[in-house]
């Protein structure tokens, strides 16, 4: 699916070569691997018979071209699409509910370029201190919508993701409205269902409230991910990890303003409106799964026990 706005600068040259090596991608055999995954999909009665090549290739890259790992990720991805309608239905960026968040509540655009080691950077910041419970869920939905666009448009692939969280407007009212169940479902999506290689999370403009938020989220993460969270007292410390020039102007960089980037990504999500609508039916059918159907309560740990999540 090719649309009019290209927001992601694709890596090339030496960076692209390094990415190929890190992802264990052999340009001579990758399409053989893609064909094998497509054939496997066709043989799974509970999964879609066919899907677009580009997302499948992104899943292969995110699985370091391990076919078995890619199969597990895809099965979980389509399972989560069925299990979490709050994230995977009504994904229309022109709807009043989503437009309100995109325009006046929170910004989370991936940046155009990649770091010297081939990682994509996304900056998330609140622009309004208050979100109700439904808006928090819709914000997470939008984050996964951006993730789905990237499944299609990361044509060359990246060596991992870096997230920068600007916590300047994170207030106690937001913390009070966080639902453990919703956060847990989102974490399972990100860590087990998407081909994400989360390398670093950087938190800037921190406060005691932010530290409470991190404490809230940490039980959903494995130890090695906790070690990838960095809290910075000063913005200049971020530049040790992300080149200053590739950041938005608000953070001392040269890639445009956050408002401009957010507007571009809002338009991108609108361009994908029909694609998202077509994806509503692309999900697992548990009634057709061989063996025992997935028990959503067990999957999400509804009994109250935290499920330790796996991540690359």
UniProtKB/TrEMBL annotation:
Organism: Papilio polytes
Pfam families hit by this protein: CRAL_TRIO
One GO cellular component term noted in the UniProt record for this chain: membrane
GO molecular function: phosphatidylinositol bisphosphate binding
Signal sequence coordinates: none
InterPro entries tied to this protein: CRAL-TRIO_dom (IPR001251), CRAL-TRIO_dom_sf (IPR036865), CRAL/TRIO_N_dom_sf (IPR036273)
Protein name as catalogued: Alpha tocopherol transfer protein
Protein origin, superkingdom: Eukaryota
Residue span, CRAL-TRIO domain: 94-259
């Amino acid at each position: 699916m090719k649309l009019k706005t290209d927001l992601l600068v694709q890596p090339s040259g030496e960076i692209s070569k390094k990415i190929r090596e890190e992802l264990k991608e052999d340009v001579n055999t990758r399409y053989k691997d893609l064909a094998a995954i497509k054939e496997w999909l066709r043989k799974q009665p509970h999964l879609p018979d066919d899907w677009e090549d580009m997302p499948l290739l992104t899943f292969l890259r995110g699985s370091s071209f391990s076919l078995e790992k890619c199969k597990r990720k895809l099965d979980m991805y389509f399972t989560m699409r069925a299990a979490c309608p709050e994230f995977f239905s009504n994904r229309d960026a022109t709807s009043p509910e989503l437009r309100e968040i995109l325009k006046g509540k929170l910004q989370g655009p991936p940046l155009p370029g990649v770091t010297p080691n081939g990682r994509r950077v996304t900056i998330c910041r609140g622009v309004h201190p208050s979100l109700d419970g439904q808006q928090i869920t819709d914000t997470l939905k939008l984050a996964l919508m951006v993730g789905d666009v990237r499944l299609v448009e990361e044509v060359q692939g990246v060596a991992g993701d870096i997230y920068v969280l600007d916590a300047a407007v994170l207030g106690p009212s937001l913390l009070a409205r966080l639902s453990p169940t919703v956060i847990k479902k989102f974490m399972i999506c990100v860590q087990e269902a998407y081909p994400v290689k989360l390398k670093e999370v950087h938190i800037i403009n921190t406060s005691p409230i932010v530290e409470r938020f991190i404490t809230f989220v940490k039980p959903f993460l494995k130890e090695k991910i906790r070690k990838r969270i960095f809290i910075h007292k000063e913005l200049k410390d971020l530049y040790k990890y992300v080149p200053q020039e590739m950041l938005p102007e608000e953070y001392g960089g040269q890639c445009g303003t956050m408002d401009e980037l957010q507007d571009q990504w809002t338009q991108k999500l609108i361009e994908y409106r029909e694609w998202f609508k077509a994806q509503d039916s692309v999900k697992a059918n548990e009634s057709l799964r061989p063996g025992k159907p997935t028990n959503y309560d067990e999957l999400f740990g509804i009994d109250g026990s935290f499920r330790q999540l796996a991540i690359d």
